[in-house]
Structure formats: C-alpha cells, structure tokens
Amino acid sequence: MKTRNARAAAAAVAALMAVGLVACSGDSGNTGGDAEGGDVTLTMWHNSTTGDGKQYWDDAAAAFHEENPEVTIKVTSIQNEDMDGKLQTAVNSGDMPDIFMARGGGKLADIVSAGAVKDLTDLVDDDVKSAFGEAPFNAFTVDGKIYGMPSAVLPGGLFYSKDLFEQAGITEEPQTIDELEAAVDKLKDAGVAPIALGAKDAWPAAHWYYFFALRACGQDLIANLTTDPDFTDECWLTAAENLADFAQVEPFNDGFLTTSAQEGANSSAGLVANHKAAMELMGAWNVGVIASLTPDEKPLPDLGWFPFPEVDGGEGGAGAMMGGVDGYSCSADSPAACEEFLNFVSSKDWQEKYAVAFQTIPASQDALGAVTDPSLVPLMEAYSNAPYVALWLDTALGQNVGNALNVGVVDMLAGKGDPEKLVAQVNDAAARG
C-alpha cells in the first residue's frame, strides 16, 4: 500500500505531540487565476456549521478579501461527522477544495500519499513558526515536510457540570476509575444521567477505549501505531476488558447507542449543555460545542474539567493525555493565495479571535491570553504537565483501521462483540492495510 511511506513520516505525530501547550454540499476544485496574477477564487471546507465558529470563517474570508481584493474565498460548512468521507470522495475524484480541514496523523498521511496535498514547509511564515513552536506542526508533518497549518490544540478529558456534581453530593473530581464509578452511582441515586455518550457517531464511544489503552499500554506502543499498527500486545486486550468492566456499571445515558455527539439539544454535548447528563469524555473543542447548545447559546457557567482517571496495573505514564491538533491544508494544485490565507489567519489577532469564537485553545502561544473559559484553565495546566500526549488513535491509524477500531468499540458496547473480538477486528484491519 502506497500510504505506508507517508505514514512512516507521520510518526512525528503519533510519535506523540510534543508537550507544549473540531449539511454537506458545496463546490470543490479551484478556479485560480492565471500566472499573471488575475482574480482568484478559492474553495474552503471547514466543520463549523453554526454559531460563532461558522461566523469566524466567514469573517476571516471577508477580511482577507478586503486586504486582497483579487482573492475571493468560497466558504462551505461541512458537518463534522461527514468531513472525512467527503474528503475521501474528493481525493478519489481529483476534485479537491483548495483549503480543507485536516486532522493530521495517518488520516492526513493517506491524502499526502495520494498526491493531493501541498507541501507547506517553506510557505509558512517564520513569525508563525516561531509563535506556534514545533509541537503543533508535528501533527501535520509527513516525511519531514509540513502539510498543514495548525489552528487549535485539543487534548481530551472529562467535562462535567459542577452543579450536578454538587446535587449528587460529589465533592471531589474523580482521580481513579474506582472513584469515577462511585461518582456514577451517586449521580444515578440523584436521578441524573452520569455520562453522556454519542455512540451513534462511533468515535465518541471509541474515545473511552483510547483512554483505557493510554493507561494500559506503554508510551512506545502508543507512539508507534502510525508506522506499526500491531495490536498483539496484551495491553490492548486489557484496555478492552477494562472498558467492558466499566460499561457494566451502566454509566451512560439511556439510548446512548442512538445518540449523536454534537447535533442538537439531544446530542451528548446537548445533554451536558442542558443539565440532562453530568459528564462527557471529549476533546477541548467541547467547550464551544456545549456553549452553542445551551438555551442562551453562551458558555455553560458551571462547566468543569478533569483528566481521565488513572487505572491500576497499566504501563501508561501517570498523567499522560490524549488529544489532537486541528488545522488546515491546501490542495496540491491550489493557488498561492491558499497558503497566504493560512498565514493570515495564523496571526496573533486571528488566533485570539479563533480562541474566543471556538472557546478553545489556539495553536499560537502568543494567543493563549485569549483563553478565558474556566474549564480550559485546568486542561491547559494538565496538558503542560503531561509526560507525553498521544494522538487520537483513529487519527494516528488512518481512516480504514481507525474506523474499524471505532465501529468495533460500539459493537462491544452494544453487546455484539467482546474484548477479544474487538482486538481481533482491529488486527485484521491493520493486516489488510
């Protein structure tokens, strides 16, 4: 499979993000101007379909056009769960958008291998590289070359309602799985759904396996997944067994298998936003998603955060985290205006606006002062102190193997499989490439 060389390069991502400090339609393909500098129209795909996030990209495109009247950017919002599939279709058809959201890791490496992504190594402004530091770019580095511009750093953990914890008599954030299970029991006794889970979209359910694997498996095993997707080590089965055991306490909302992650008040994020569930395991983008789903569409005042609890007996480093880096790439044949726009939105000013619009952690160190949400403060502290940060497993593994993992986790939680079957399915998918 041709993608193997590209994935070997993406080891910079899965090698771990160095410690430092988210309705499908639209035209694709570029209508770039001629070599003499005529008018240029760029197409852009992003995953912010509502609220301040969608407005951010509309405003950024308008501001860039104001400074560069010859360049027009046609912005199209793609539902997050549809983005990967739509991009794969674009790659296969050769009809790529000029600018597209990229998640890094094996997913980006596969597109690079298809020759569909522009090498940005020498096209990123020096002041941007300096402000961002090396770590965020690792997620978009393939064969030593940069193929994407970071926009946000997105480590994960458990977001929770402080009010619902208080209502249930929970006075301290759980630090171990036993303490988390005790909190689940107290919330049930208080008549509150303990943990919201949007398993309909698969990847939120798989997050639970990712974190149990982070605790069970050593750093090297996690780091090498991009180049060596081997799940024969006993720790992978241990992680699946630990998840199966945790699921036995019935911690998730009723109907979690048919609950979506981010769409509407009845999604898992919506359940937290409307105090119908106490917790959700998710990445840092969740603050903005939850804010968009509260009754007043403002940040949830009592939202808190704590790291995924420690699990006895594993080989993962204490305090290790899992997460990702969102960013944007240019198609291979995009006009130069593409990288110019990415440099434009990577300035301190626009990164600060990004942090506010998305209620998240910007990639630029210079823009961290714009992060004010109280739930993100402990997250940033934990991220800074983590011994290492692993990339989301499905992102590291690429679309085919990553999807097999995600679906296998849902099947196990639905009673259609068991830990042994889950690990076997993923190993089979990895063997097929």
Automatic annotation (TrEMBL):
Domain of life according to the entry: Bacteria
Keyword Glycosyltransferase in annotation: no
Signal peptide positions (record): 1-25
Keyword vocabulary terms for this entry: Signal
SUPFAM superfamilies (alphabetical): Periplasmic binding protein-like II
Gene3D superfamilies hit by this protein: Periplasmic binding protein-like II
PANTHER family linked to this entry: ARABINOSE-BINDING PROTEIN-RELATED, BLR3389 PROTEIN
The protein's name: Sugar ABC transporter substrate-binding protein
Species the sequence originates in: Microbacterium aerolatum
